Amino acid sequence: MDFQKPRYTPMSRRRRIYEGKAKVLYEGPEPGTLIQHFKDDATAFNAKKHEVIEGKGVLNNRISEYVFQHLNDIGVPTHFIRRLNMREQLIREVEIIPLEVVVRNVAAGSLSQRLGIEEGTQLPRSIIEFYYKNDKLNDPMVSEEHITAFGWASPQEIDDIMALAIRVNDFLSGLFLGVGIRLVDFKMETGRLWENDMMRIVVADEISPDSCRLWDIKSNEKLDKDRFRRDLGGLVEAYTEVAKRLGIMGEGERPQGSGPVLVKS
């Protein structure tokens, strides 16, 4: 299937498949594809806190594209095909597994609160946690026993998900370390990608400062969504700093892009 030159349909004429807190999924140009649109909405505490922050969606699209393209390049399977414009990317349609996979390298957030570990403490090893994706229940933490008992994923799928999580963590840790950023933790989602009768688990959704905790190595300044959660301000500036360090945006470039502009491949 040639994904290089899909026909481009204006957003207003596309069939909306799903809308989440930060993204909208539209019907894709080819069977088995979707268009993922990044909104400027910032939410926290399961949308109890909500603002629209101009430019956020553009930055997350660009940063997630960068991460997913590199994961594809090193052989980590993902749903990502390519970025279409400032706010949208072409992705493969997958059956999302209803689990959030959180990989923690440093104590922060709910882990610090639950276990009384001071935020910023280096963990003895990376810890993988599972949360059941259900906003009404505030995404409760679950064990492998819950996951297999309720049929959310099989034991083999859990093994595959954990192997992916470890590979993504190794890649992201090195990537961010190289630009002076500490990967404290991150959230990852996965899905089942069906190709004829074959199924494999792939990384899905997004990987961006919305789903990672990123601290400057020297100052411990937060460069992630905690700036919004904790009313620190400067969210777009922090995300822009991450993009600049990764070489995605040049000095002085601003995350504009209210309307889609088709990127030529």
Walk me through what this model shows:
The chain is of the alpha+beta class and 265 residues long. The protein folds into two domains: 12-94 and 235-245, Phosphorylase Kinase, domain 1; 96-216, D-amino Acid Aminotransferase, Chain A, domain 1 (2-Layer Sandwich), CATH 3.30.470.20. Helices cover 26% and strands 31% of the residues. The protein has six helices and 14 strands. The protein has helices spanning 56-73, 109-115, 144-149, 155-177, 226-229, 235-245; strands at 16-19, 23-27, 33-38, 41-44, 49-52, 80-83, 88-92, 95-96, 99-106, 122-132, 141-142, 181-195, 198-204, 212-216. Strands 8, 9, 10, 11, 12, 13 and 14 form a seven-stranded antiparallel β-sheet that branches. Strand 10 and strand 11 form a beta hairpin. Helix 1 (56-73) runs parallel beside helix 6. The longest helix has 23 residues, at 155-177. It is globular. 36% of the residues are buried.
Notable traits:
265 residues; alpha+beta; Phosphorylase Kinase, domain 1; 2 domains; seven-stranded antiparallel β-sheet; five-stranded antiparallel β-sheet; globular
Share in helix: 25-40%
Q: Which value, in Å, is the CA radius of gyration?
A: 18 Å
Uncertain stretches of 5 or more adjacent residues: 258-265
What can be said about the biggest beta sheet? 7 strands, antiparallel
What is the residue-mean pLDDT, rounded to a whole number?
Answer: 92
Please identify the oligomeric state.
Answer: single chain
Number of domains: 2
Determine the structural class based on helices, strands and strand pairing.
Answer: alpha+beta
